[in-house]
Amino acid sequence: MAGEFQRSKLTGMFLAFDTDRTGHLDQADFQDLAARWHRLPRVAGDPALTDRVSEVRLGWWDHLSAAADRDGDGRVGLDEVVAMVDRLPAMLDYVNATSDAVFDAVDENGDGRISRAEHRRLVDTWHGQEVDTADVFELLDRDGDGYLGRSEFALLWAQFWISDNPADPGNLLCGPLPG
């Protein structure tokens, strides 16, 4: 069962994903999210990556609705999302595939690393608006090389979705946590 910290973190995610501000998630929200990600320069210029991003984003709606839409109304509320998080450790292959697609979408210059500026675009794209990331990148960049490599990013991504430990840096991957 998700703890209080994880619920707070997922509330921020839920608000970012609820693109039409209805208080629930539905397939249209995930279509809007995919369109948001399609505007990233690397995604917009690569039809195969565009398809991959769409497949991952809409695939998460399929997983979420199948697992959490208890009443079958095509909508998922925050409590249903929170209940879903307990299943994520058993879905690591899909979590990792999502991490790879997000990494490739954000790695604008294709150098195999995410810079501070690329991370900032990830956060802004995630939220659909500019977000003050302050010193978040320093906390994520554990080796201090100024970049997030693919394996570093994958660990942070898994922590963001699965961790209930406030000390795990991955909790900040998609920006500062709600106050």
TrEMBL record:
Domain EF-hand positions: 5-40, 128-163
Top-level taxon: Bacteria
Record key words, sorted: Metal-binding, Repeat
Record's keyword annotation contains Repeat: yes
Taxonomic source organism: Kitasatospora griseola (Streptomyces griseolosporeus)
Protein name: Calcium sensor EFh
InterPro entries: EF-hand-dom_pair, EF_Hand_1_Ca_BS, EF_hand_dom, EF_hand_pair_protein_CML-like
Keyword Translocase set for record: no
PANTHER family: EF-HAND CALCIUM-BINDING DOMAIN CONTAINING PROTEIN (PTHR10891)
Gene Ontology molecular function: calcium ion binding
Membrane-spanning parts: none
Pfam families assigned to the protein according to its UniProt record, in alphabetical order: EF-hand_7, EF-hand_8
